[in-house]
Amino acid sequence: MDLRHGRKFSENTIRAYRADMYRFFRHQHSRNLLDGFTVNEIRGFMRNETARGIDSRSLSRELSTLRTFGNWLMETGRSPKNPARLVAMPRSRAGLPGFLSVAEVRRVLDTYDGSAVLDIRNRAVVEILYGAGLRAAETVSITLSGLDTSERQVSVTGKGDRERIVPLPEPTCRYLDRWLGRRGELLTGGRADPGTVFVSARGRKPDPRDIRRIVACGVSKAARAAGATPHTFRHSFATHLLDNGADLRAVQDMLGHASLSTTQIYTHLTMERLRKAYRKAHPRGKE
Description:
Layout: H1 2-6, H2 11-27, H3 39-51, H4 56-75, H5 102-110, H6 117-132, H7 136-141, E1 147-148, E2 153-157, E3 163-167, H8 170-182, H9 208-219, H10 230-243, H11 248-255, H12 260-263, H13 265-281
Antiparallel strand pairs: 1-2, 2-3
Helix pairs in contact: 3-4, 6-8, 6-10, 10-13
């Protein structure tokens, strides 16, 4: 309850934290979670996770989960200290996010060109993932009142309940309007309208996993885009904007990043591409 209402974490984050705590509880030697919440137990858990081959990013998230739990124990008077704070964060090298070229994005989008209502919905989903750079959880939560295709914009509630308005390109609006014209076909038989732009085949608010399945279906038919996820389209959105001269702070606002440093990782992508082009084309690029 504290994570959802107090800290306003997303459902996906809460699910991940719950899984982390479950793994820690299974590992520790004490049957009492509080008795086993010690520096030695936490370090032993991290060593065990490392031995299992867990990558540094996941290890950092697990330790972050334990630190959040320790903070909650202190805030509620259940413990005078947070032992997880005494355990060093795993060292990790920030990896650059994957992205698709403009041609690869078009190739994936074209795989959804069908006349069936679900084909139209799926095309609209991927259109807005790329056209607005949304997360999967944000996409399923877009409300009918928050979408304005005439003004070409969408209101989004992101992480930390931060709201933002993101502009939409004309092609995305065109496919969204086409979907909205068929949306009612999935709400027959007295089904209650969930009020979200996208609905499942059963007329319900979809789950982020539904978005991942929709994307997986399309990329499986576009060989060069194999392995792409909803987040790949978000990365592609940011990379293509910066490649074409968009202001970094404007991209930050559109992505809903709380910190500019999070957005700056995309500048590394564009600079690396420039370096490769330079090394390939400049007479002294390979010296």
